[in-house]
Every structure is written in structure tokens, then in C-alpha cells.
Amino acid sequence: MQASILCFDQFELDLNSYELRKSGHVIKLEKLPMELLILLAEKRGQLVTREQIIQRLWGDDVFVDTRQGINTAIRKIRVALRDDPEHPHLLQTVAGRGYRLLAPVSTRDENPQEKPAPQLAPQLALPSSFPPSMPPASTVTGVRWRYVLVVAIVLVALVSVIFWLSLRGFSPPATEQRVTFNPPDAPITFAVVSPDGKYVAYADPTGLYWRQLASGETRRWGVPQDFIAHPNSWFPDGTHLLVTRVEGASRIPSLWKLSLLGGSQRMLMDNAAAGAVSPDGSRIAYLPGPDVGSELWLMDSDGANRRKIAVAETADKPLRGRIWPAVWSPRGRRIAYIESHGLAVLQPEEDSFSLQTRDANGGDLQVVSSDTRLKQALCWVADGRILYAYRDDPSSERSDEGVYSIRVDERTGKATSQPQTVTSGQGRVGGLSVTSDGKHLILWRENTQPQAFIAEFEAGSPRLKTSRRRLTLDANGNIAEAWTSDSKAVLFVSNRNGTWGLFKQNIDETTAEVLVEGRSIFLPRLSPDGSHVLYLTASKPDDSSLPASLMSKSLAGGPPHLVLQEKGVIRNYQCARAPSQLCIFSKLVGANHVFVSFDLEHGTGRELTRITNFAYANWTLSPDGRKVAIFLNRHQIRFLSLDTGVAHDVTIDNWPLQNGDWSANGKSVFVPSVTSKDMRVILEVNEAGKAEVVLEGDASTIFWWFLQSPDGRYGILEATVPGDNNAWMVKNF
Question: What is the Cα 504 distance to its own chain's centre?
């Protein structure tokens, strides 16, 4: 008889129940990954080729992308087994061939029909029926006591089982329940649960709301229409809410206190954001402006007694770190926060992060965890655990995140347990909040992805047509940053296959051509003559001490070749268009932004110029290679002549700026911005500082940049596309 259970490492594959188990707990696994794992286990360490996998999973009639299907199944198996592809101990990849299971496999027969029924209590001989006449009282009393005895024995057995399971660390699986139901065009942007678990406050592009969890009743907060705010933290009474308000063209944030019971809004702090109220309501931790995230401060709940308690790490770093919103420990003794550590290369992947705690006065810093897969969201539960967002699959460069927990001593701020999985899902975890009793967790997920759109200019007009069409018909991240010289195709990177690869797509087609596969490929540009695509790649994007490689690949075909390497300091690079042959990259030397020329044949050239004390400067090179536009801050652009070295600055008071790209004729730059009512726009700004709106958007879609085609007819609009962005309640976590 064939074995019904395959055992390896700490896992069991039950072929009868079609379950993967670890220490008695069922681990969720979809059909294709389960079939593949069974195949690997049945082969007992032998190599399983991709052809064998295709035959097992799909048979002879294959009408799917088997390569991506196998890769996806392998990733899901690794997640289920907690197996790191960089250092595998269970599942080995044999490059170009297939896979094998490394752990020894044993078998165990288990036929449910032959199992003896569990005996919870002795079998008592009870009468199956009574005679029609009333039995003697002594008989009735005896039967009643027999029933009581059986019930008592069963209860004792159940209590014993529960006690035994508790000793083994068993707990019911975490369950998620959706609490908001917004459509993609009104995505949830923030959500936080009240301490008593009665309400969830949330924001979307239409306003600020509260929802009663028991009844589902939803109401808008009684604030003016122009009061654009995001919920941060509830006060202990469960009726007052701390929010960050953003107003005006300057987008300066401020902290306000609102009440469910009505009344006027009260501002607590100007030029501050991301407040967290202490458990007793006496203090507020917050991030001050104008450089939000560079420092962490405390103040009393009325806005008085302000003091700094933490500064983001800057020592020996080419880029400054950033502190993300803080949370309080259950008794208010300590504060925990995530600090991001800026990387020196631009990349689709986010920075590396560390989880840190301090005492409530700012001293006794403890680093609980430092991990490239750690993300920004966290909360501190009443039972002493810190919950935090974490990227589940180490082999993937998609943004799917789960929630992990680690127990931390509130007195010392040090970890007292290993991380444990709480829940997982699709999309980025935007925020976490928990009730004061620790029984209910609210998380909101962000399934917003960058996508490329094609916009067309109106004939004889500088404005763009209001209609635009999506170029990349793929729900994963797609980041377009270059045109081909004939204006017929776009070069972009995408993580549609799990890691960031390089693609090319004609603007009149719906599918893309793969140019370079790999990992951590980003920032595609075009060579001056248009014959080659350039791109950056990093062997370990989270380690800025390792060199970033600037690569070149002919659009006619052939393998890529190395142009130059810089140790983690390439911030941006661009090439002019022929007849100019100029290419520039910029790097950070301390707080200085240094501009250096390069070419495809000889690599690094000479220093052209440098800007002091502008480590984060964005810039763009004009098509003729004669000028650079540098975005110094949120309202200033510096136009620098590379021929003469003469520079002049323009100030755009009414619009916040972050980046921009030259127009095809080199007379202006296209800049994404936002109105005072949080509506997205693309501006055209000339060298005199005159700004005109050429494209209007909405509040739910963020414009990142606009690249005009060389012939001036079209533009790539890189924007985020909202997906299912909603809030969920987690129980049994």
C-alpha cells in the first residue's frame, strides 16, 4: 500500500487530506505549489527537471506561461517552508535544470478507516428506551447520574486537551475580516482603531471618516471641505482623534485634535506630522518639519514642553536615514519606531530598515532587529509583542508584505523571543494599530502600483489631451524612464516575473519584449546615438558598500557589458541626444553632489561640477547636453550652463516640486506637482520660472514624472494606479 504521509525536516505532507503540516499546524498552500512539493518529496532528493514539473502540473496540453508558473510555485513553496533561496536548507535550485528537495524523506502509513475511535470516556450501558409506564424514582435518579458522569468526564477530557495544546504553544489561526469596502478610485490612505475597539478612523481622497465596527455605520467627520487630514492616533477616551492636516501649496503639515462629539478643531502643533498619543493621553510623540522624519520629538498633549528625543542616523552614510512614525509601549515606558537607512543607489526596492526602542525620555537606545525585509508599519500590543510589516518572500522583489511579531521587554527594550508570523497577504502594509486590550488588530493594505501611461499633446497646443491610455497592461510594478530615439517604443523595468527586469514595448502594442532578466535592474536610459539601453544594477541593493554597476546593452541584441562601477554612490545618470555625446552621472561625496562625465567605451570621465549640501538633489540633463536643471528643494530650480558654469535659480512659490525632465526642445521642464486641494497636475516650467498646467489629474492617482518623446508628440506619464486599498481586522493574532 502506498504511504499516505511523506515526512521531511519538521514537515508532513498528508496525501489523503492534501495538507502540508508543521508540528500539527496546517500551512496553507495552493494546488500547483502543493503538487510540485509532493513531486519533489516523492523523488527523495533526486533532481526534478522543469520538463518533469511541466508534465506533472499541466500535462501535454500546455497553454500557460510555464516558466513563470514554475517560478511562482517555487516561491510559494519557499515561503511555506521558510526557506531562504540565498541560503537554502530544504529546496535547492539547480540552475538551468530544475530543483531537488535536500531534506531526507520518510513515509508513514495512515489509513483513517483503520484508526480506532478515540475513547473520551468509559462506555456506559444506558438503556436505549424506557417502558411506557413511569419507572421507579431510583431508576430515574441512576440514569440521570450516569448522564452527569458522562458529561463531567467529557468536560475533563476537553479541558485536558486544551491545557495540553496550550503547553505546546497552540493557538487558533489568525483570521482577517474586511472592515472597509472602498473601490480602487477611492483608496484608503490611513486607518486606525480606537483603544476600546468601537471605531475605525480612516481617510480616502474624498475626506476623513469614522466607522462603527459593531454596526458598520459610517460617518464623515464634521470638518470643513478643505480640511485634508490623515488619522494618526486616538486619545485614550476613544472619542478624540489626533490627525495630521496638510494644507496649502506648501503642503506644510500640522497636528490637530478632533472630537467625535463635534465642536471645533484644535491645532496642537504647526509644522509637524505623524503623531502618536501615549497610553495615558499625557504625551504625544511626533515628527517635526520641515524635514519630516529626520528627528523624533515629544510634547505634552496640549502642545507644551517640546523636546527632541532621537535623530535619524547620518554618520558614515552617503544618505541620511529617516525615522518613521513611532508607537508607545503598553504602559508608556518606551517608544518604538522604524528607522530607514538611505541607500546610495536609486532602485525600485525600498531602503533597509531597523526596529528600535528608546525609553520615554529618549535614552537607552536598543536595536531590536535590523533586516532588509523589515518595513515601516508597526504597533505595540498589550501582551508585550511588537507587530511589524515584513516582506515575506526573500526571493521576490514584489511589494507583498506580511505581519510578524517579536516579544520585547518593556523595561529593557530588548527582544525576548524570535520573530513569528502573524498574517500575510497581497500588497504593502500601510499601517498597523491595535486595541488597548490587544484583542483586535487593524491593518490597511496598499495595493497601489506604478504604471506607465501614454499621453498625447493636442495639435498646435502645449497642453496634453485629457484622455490617456495605459501602456503596461500588467498589475505589477512597471516603471518607464526612457524613449527609444524614434519615439516608437518605451524602455521600462517591471517586477512582473518576481524580480525587476528590463523591458521594451512599442506604444501601439500591448505586450513587451524582455531585454534583460535578472534582479535589481533599474533606471533605464538611452545612449546618445540611441543604439544602446543603459541601466543600473546592484548585486546587493541593501549594501551601499558594494559597487553599483552601470551596464549597457545593444538594442540590436547581444549580451550586456559593464560601463563603470561606483561603490554605491550613483544617484542619477543621463545622456544627451546626438550630435552631443555627453553622458553624466552624479554621486555623493559627503553632503556634496558631484557630477561626473562618462562614456560607453571608457567609463568614468572628469568631474563637471558639484553642489554642496544638497545630498538629495534631483536633476535632469537637457537634450543638447548644454544645461542641467537641478531641483534644490520644494520650490527652487537651478538652471546651470555646462558651457559657462553660470547658474540662476528660479522660485515657484505656488507649487511644490520634487523632480522634472526636460522637454523635447530643451526650452522647459515638465514637473509633477499638486494643488492646494490635493489634485495632481503636470506643470511646464520655463527658465524664467513661469509655470503652466499642461495636464490635470485627481487625488487618487499620483503623478511621478512626465517624459516627452523625442518627436514632441507624446509623453510617458508615470503614475500610481490604486488597487484594493482597504482596512482589515485581524483576530486571534
Answer: 26
List Cα–Cα distances, 584 to 333, 631, 638, in angstroms.
Answer: 51, 16, 17
The pTM is what? 0.69
Same domain, yes or no: 551 and 670: yes
Beta bridge partners, 22, equal 11, 25
| DSSP 8-state class, residue 122 | P
**pLDDT average per 10 residues of sequence, the chain (733 residues):** 78 88 84 90 90 82 66 86 84 86 84 41 32 37 46 53 46 75 89 95 93 91 88 95 84 91 88 95 92 90 92 61 92 93 50 87 90 88 94 77 92 92 87 94 90 88 83 90 96 90 94 89 94 86 65 93 82 93 88 88 91 77 95 90 93 90 95 87 94 87 93 93 88 83
Residue at which a domain ends, from 63, 84, 114: 114
Whether the CB-CB separation of 713 and 429 falls below 8 Å is answered with: no
Cis amide prior to 116 (ω within 30 degrees): no
CA dihedral 590, 591, 596, 601 (to 10 degrees): 50
CA 350 to chain centre: 8
Looking at the structure of the chain, the number of domains it has is: 4
Contacts of 166 (CB under 8 A, 6+ apart): none
Helices (DSSP H) in 10-60: which residue ranges? 31-43, 50-58
> By residue range, what is the domain housing residue 578?
449-721
